[in-house]
Amino acid sequence: MIRYVLKRLAELVPVLWAVITIAFFLARLAPGGPFDAERKAPPEALRQIEAYYRLDQPLWKQYALYLWGVARGDLGPSFRKPGRSVTEWILLRLPVSLELGAYALAVALALGLAGGLAAALRPDTPLDRVLNAGALLGICLPSFLLGPLLVLVCALWLGWFPVAGWSSPAHKVLPSFTLGALYAAYLARLTRGSMLEMLGQDFIRAARARGVSETRVVLVHALPGAMVPVSAFLGPAMAGLFTGSFVVETIFFIPGLGREFVEAAFNRDYTMVIGAVIVYAVLVALLNLAADLVTAWLDPRIRLE
Amino acid sequence: MRGNGFFRQTWVVSLVLPWVLLGAGCSGPPREPDLLRVGNGAEPAALDPHLVSGVSEHRVLSALFEGLATINPATLEPEPAVAARWEASPDGLVWRFHLDPDTRWSDGTPVTAGDFVYAWRRMLSPALGSEYAYMLHCLAGARAFNEGQTTDFSTVGARALSDGVLEVQLDHPTPYLLKMQSHFAWYPVKAAAVEAAGRVDDRNNPWARPGTLVSNGPFRLVEWQPNDQIRLERNPYYRRAGSVRLPGIVFYPVDNQQTEERLFRAGLLDLTSTVPRYKIPVYRQRMPERLQSHPYLGTYFYRFNVTRSPLNDPRVRRALVMALDRKELAERVLKGGEIPADRLVPEGMAGYRPPEGIPYDPEGARQLLAEAGYPEGRGMRELDLLFNTSEAHRLIAEAAQRMWRETLGIRVTLRNQDWKVYLASMDSLDYDIARSAWIADVPDAVNFLECFLAGGGNNRTGWSSETYDQLIREAYREADQDRRAVLLARAEALLLDEAPIAPVYFYRWTFLMNPEVRGLVPNPLGFIRWTDLWLERQEGGE
Asked: Which of B63, B72, B253, B454 has the least C-beta neighbours within 10 A?
């Protein structure tokens, strides 16, 4: 088990190197640079700035210097935002995205699992159909539509929650719901499917025949098995939730990493873009590893080697 | 009823759990009825006045710092600020500023003439690479120092005669010198504060943050949560602290227009940086008292790439301009109260009498095009019209495309690009016609006209004219205001005659304002003098 984890972590190094290399050269391939602006700076100023950020050196040398920096844990200065390093920006922004992701995950799990279970326990009833329709709606509604709709109804008309911002717990309800809704919908459908499959198995029928209580049948006998596909889905899903959503962060004015990342890409803030990509790569790798471990724990048939 | 009990439990849990997890208690946002809450567009790149270039930074910095003079928003004339008074030599080349003895830094120490010299030296130091250093090039010797031709700052025309007297020597008469003093490029910075945090000319010197940023304006920095808020409070050491009526300002960097409008509608912002275009008619109809729309010193125009045929023929370019019905564009397409433009320099430049513009004249346009050898557009290749991705730019481009096709028979394809790609295309002259704009840094016609000097970084058309360059350079040296204005007007007339650009409309400064905000004087600079403002909160309102 520990050997497996170590092996997976060691595999991360070449993956990160590849990600950094691709991100570095892709960012440079995009037309325009960090210091292009509608009012063009005088050539002398531009020359000085480029020299400061070593943009005047050959690309291979910049790449080597950057890699050397990353190896020492230095992601470099932000090109567009002087006075703060990329590491500092990420440390400022990532916790907010992680927090939002955690709440959205809670929403997704609570609504998705409960909805899915409820539908599976009463298949082909009006309730099942309503839940199914709800899940379908959740999958179809993009967050850039769901977000403003929720704000309009729950914030501007009903006044239950603030319109945007990220200071009090009340601020966090609508964005968490907006981000979590899609995942809740997927989870509900996934849970319903796998639960129905489980409840149709022979050992469930045997358990019922033995007179095991219904609650116990569902929670102890069927649920763990039904969670295997769910946990496999959760790995990549969590990566999506935790890395921050540009759309949700923009709509709700949340100071997370997603907004920073997209803004940096538009501004050609090279170091910031690559820094964010590295964080995302690490997160995706670690969360996938976690999902694999959980799946193995739930399903003894899976061997980790 | 298999599973009914369980279903009920899970259902209730699913409804309740998320809110419990969130600790939701609907506590709502903190109520801060005393503070002015300002939507400020993009997140400021920095609060170091020597390293920024945008409008959102200017908003915050003009509350934190104060220059030698300020601009009266009603008259647009300079008024004393840090300098209580000044005198100029008859040729307008030597200025002496006498500092207000009450001027202090936010740490209580006095602001001296030496602080200005220090700041300007830092601004001009080549290693810092300040993008706005050129604003100081009117100082004698400043350009040479900025470009690294000398490292001796005593060659630059800025000297502290004593703690209270600053002498400035100019390279050429600069009638807008005083008006420029409200621009962040000219603000003083405190040497001890900068150097306690790092090297003076290091771009990443982190001094401009809460705790270490020392400023001399009406407000001081309390908190800066990037992408969340910048919080200022009244500076007790400000030279006229008693006249500042706002206890504090909170700037919110809401870069999304729709989100900003929703925050305003919910009463969480007092001022916005802009209004979504589609909301303007709604506010005009339902809440006109909240909608502010004022003329603004900015021009929206198209550039023509004069290095390519057929746009290398001035007759073709003028025909394209004359075929643009800018009144219809402003009134039917944009509908935001924009003013149709027939020239480059907007109204409201002190002492400037603009030349005759390029009228909308479809018949004349057809005739010119025929003279150029393309009757009814025959033989003309298809032109491309480049713009950066934006709904408004697309609307205007589509209307222009239709006008050119219907009036001149010229076919135009639209090409939209991401912002940086679009800038790169313009720089490398990889376009036929490109959408563009210029907003005044200082309220002077020369600020618009000098963009089109041969080879200038902001020219981006390939156009050049020796006569034009000479007129502008003569205007630089001319001390007499009237003669200077005539020279500039002749330059603009020449520019319009050659038409490397097609003026489209003059901007408006459009934003939302809570009527509880008092004292704001709208002006074509979009300049908010924070000391003018106060709040009269309604009972029970926020």
From this structure: B454
